[in-house]
Amino acid sequence: MTTSAENKAFEEGSAGVVTPQQVTLFHPPHELKLEGGSTLGPITIQYETYGTLNAKKDNAILICHALSGDAHAAGRHSADDPDAGWWDVAIGPGKAFDTSQYFVICPNFLGGCKGTTGSLSINPRTGRPYGTSFPMITIRDMVVCQKALIDHLGIPKLLSVSGGSMGGMQALEWAVSFPDAVESVIPIASTHRLSAQGIAFNEVGRQAIFADPNWNTGDYYGGPPPDAGLALARMIGHITYLSEKAMHRKFGRALRHRDRYAYNFETEFQVESYLHHQGKKFIQRFDANTYLYITKAMDYFDLAAGFSSLRVSLKRAKAKFLLIAFSSDWLFPPPEMKEIANALRSNGSDVTFLTIQSDYGHDAFLLETEEITKVIRPFLKFLRLTHERPPHARSHPEAGTGANAGGAVL
Amino acid sequence: MNTLSPDAPGLAAALQRTDFRTVLEIVEPGSRVLDLGCGNGSLLQLLRNRKQTVGYGVELSPNLITECIEKGLSVFHGNLDEGLRDFEDQSFDYVILNQTLPVVHRPAYVIEEMMRVGRKGIVSFPNFGYWRIRLRLLLTGRMPVDEVIPHEWYDTPNIHHLTVKDFGLFCKRFRVALLDAWYFRSLEGDAARQAMIRPNWSAAFGLFVITRGQ
Question: What's the pTM?
Answer without folding.
Answer: 0.92
